[in-house]
């Protein structure tokens, strides 16, 4: 049996959900982003208990097929951008179609209908969040970040960053450098 869970975005989420499922006494065979595989079918009362435990932690059980597909789209994009450094070897549309066994136009229309944003805008938003994270870490140059996230140029990354955030990457970095204090100065 599979449970579909909304808002699982990282390995820590997987760990938290696994821990909570095991506390409830369920035999988990596998957990990936957005999906828990159990060895046994759950009763409605057991599903309700899972809901009650997971919702305060920011997770939701997904029951309808459309929401499950949308959550899978989000998880593929999050995994691609945040865990695989955007190393997309094919078009995003092809990747989603292959992984979800649906025509991209269906996936795109469904995503827009449910989320009120296009897949492309969601993908860009995730990439910009990753750029922010990498800028704050201050370990890579902007050209290294652009390369890592498959931007065609630093200028294109900078333009997209400014369009989404209203700031240039360097201004964003300056703002965040002034907000953070070294641990020894606290």
SS class:
alpha+beta
Helix-strand string: EHEEHEHHHHHHH
**Cα-atom Rg, whole angstroms?**
19 Å
Helix content: 55-70%
- Strand residue percentage: 5-15%
The CA-CA distance between the termini, in Å, is 50 Å
Account of the protein in words:
- Helix 3 packs across helix 5.
- It is built from 9 helices and 4 strands.
- The protein has 186 residues and is of the alpha+beta class.
- The relative contact order is 0.09.
- The mean pLDDT is 88.
- 61% of the residues lie in helices and 9% in strands.
- A hairpin with a 2-residue loop joins strand 2 and strand 3.
Main attributes of the structure:
alpha+beta, 4-stranded antiparallel sheet, 9 helices
Briefly, what is this?
This protein is of the alpha+beta class and 186 residues long. It is 61% helix and 9% strand.
Topology:
Layout: E1 2-6, H1 11-23, E2 28-32, E3 35-38, H2 44-54, E4 60-62, H3 65-83, H4 92-100, H5 104-115, H6 119-137, H7 142-148, H8 154-165, H9 169-179
Antiparallel strand pairs: 1-3, 1-4, 2-3
